[in-house]
Structure prediction request, 700 residues.
Amino acid sequence: MMSKTTTALATLAALGALSGAAQAEIRLGVSVSATGPAAFLGDPEAKTIEMLVEQLNEAGGINGEEIALTLYDDGGDPNKARTFATRLVEDDEVVAILGGSTTGTTMSILSVAEDEGIPFISLAGAISIVDPVRANVFKTPHTDRMACEKIFTDMQAQGITKIGMISGTDGFGASMQAQCKEVAGDHGIEILADETYGPQDADMTPQLTRIRNTDGVQAVLNPGFGQGPAIVTRNVAQLGFEIPLYQSHGVASDAFIELAGAEAAEGLRLPGTALLIADKLAEDDPQYKVVTAYTEAYKAKYDQDVSTFGGYAHDAFALIVDAITRAGDSEDPQAIRDALEATSGLVGTTGTYSFSPEDHLGLDLSAFRMLEIKDGDWLPVE
Amino acid sequence: MTGRNKWISLGVLALLIALLPLFFPSGYYYRVGALIFVNALSVVGLVILIGYAGQISLGHAGFAGIGAYACALAPEHLGLHPALAVLLGAVISGVMAALIGKPILRLKGYYLAVATLGFGILVSMVLTNERALTGGPDGMNVADLGLRSLLRDMGWRLSGGEFWYMICGVVLLVGAWLALNLFDSPSGRAMRALHGSEVAAATVGVDVPRQKLRAFVISAVYASVAGSLLALQNGYITPDVAGFMHSVEMVTMAVLGGVGSVLGATFGAAILTLLPQVLTVFAEYEQLVLGLVMVLVMIFLPQGLLPSIARRLKGRDE
Prediction:
């Protein structure tokens, strides 16, 4: 509730009603898709940022200055996202923007941030956000290409060279399908079958039968998120596949195991972040402290489990706080951007970030952990 | 509506567009203004279709999608200038409207609504699934119009917001002027006649299918140009622009403001564009407020906000 009030106050302040009081604050802008079709991304992101701002302000803020958060819900609509980004920059006069839950909303916010020279940390996956590198645009989630590489590396270790792919036609599945096909050759993987399904489809048996009937397929890979991968997992079990099934990081949540059924999901592998196995991390794991602090605080406040997506927001916030602290000047977007680009070795829930002028993603493959489902729970492979 | 009324409507609109910026506290308001004008433009098209000719469409976002993606695709693949792409989009939309309008405008009421709805959803599905061409649900970049940098070279510096506020304002004025002219033209009279009674209109010699089709094509071109302006302004476009909710939004704006009046349509567009901006603090209830406003207007002001208020002010029935 506290944070709602903060948001309201920030809005009022920006409207000029409290313009005097806004002086000693650090104005931070957020636009995420807390409602609408992308709410499963934006809702945990919004909650995470509100919680973290509250925590930080209670602890005394950054160098004595509190954060005034202005959070807008763009409902997953790129057009709205652009309007809110304009509003954050022009009207609320924020020094940095976090958000852009989807690739579409991110691309809309991105051009405003670039035009106005405001640092922007995106929470969306597509590689096109940071490639080519844009001066003011950073992002926290690993790319689909990295997920493909992680999966293919694991396949190589298992001696798998020929696979069948079945991908969703939603934005996530489509993007990952394309990326996987691009990097498959580098890992000596041959894609023998390439099937797709619509995000609302209720049965993928025909596509899977075709994959099974393709000679030489040694594993199945399913890029996609939402209900599709759960149905694929069930269908694979029903058809009695004897080859391993790989899912993507898009389904890395406990809800997926519930949806697919623990029995059907037994033994499938996917690349996920440390957040998923928070309770199984070793105490000397570099991410142990960050991950447990976040998961426990979130659970205590919202009585919900954390998700990978909320983790992206957590890391974006940690990055911007770190940058503002080092920049020394909380009023100058340019100084904050420079500090952000100089980020080195910041441990987040997704991985360890080190930005450079050539790399605005700052993660490597070690950010992913290969997980396997055993008895309805996630276990790290190795 | 007499000739004098037409100029009053246009004058009011022009004055509002020209004078409002004097009260803008920041650049963000130019962006909202430009959005209002874009929405108003497609709603003016719907005024012709719904208000004049009495036909319904729940698929006009499909035409907005065609206009928007014409601006995104034509410069990239055909090397066409974005300004020409707007025209190309309008032509494609017009031809599409003529082709599909011929069979489906024979339908009435719900059936027509469902048929147009189907068209809109088809366009949005094509845009979503033709990934190789449109970038799929993630959308694609739109080339810059180039006019702003041209003006800058001539010594006229405009921010992006100011520039698009002007462009959209001018296009809306032209659109409103054309729509108001149509009202008293022979075609406009024929459309309004068939709105009243198709049988009566046919009896006095109105070519009913032809006039319906004409209204449908004109309104499709309006939606297409609005979609193009949106794409050029945002510099990035996703299939959401052709989505079903966008169609519903357009019709809601038209009905809310007053479906028979060009000025009312602009008013409706303004309210529904502003509402989400004003209600950000409780965004979760935005849909609820929208629905409530809609229900109240339908019950108490069935002709729409502006015409009802205007009548109240005059103090008598027309």
The longest strand of chain B covers residues 140-141. The interface with chain A takes residues 25-29, 31-32, 35, 128-129, 131, 136-139, 141, 160-161, 230, 234-238, 240-241, 276-277, 280-281, 283-284 of chain B (CB under 8 Å).
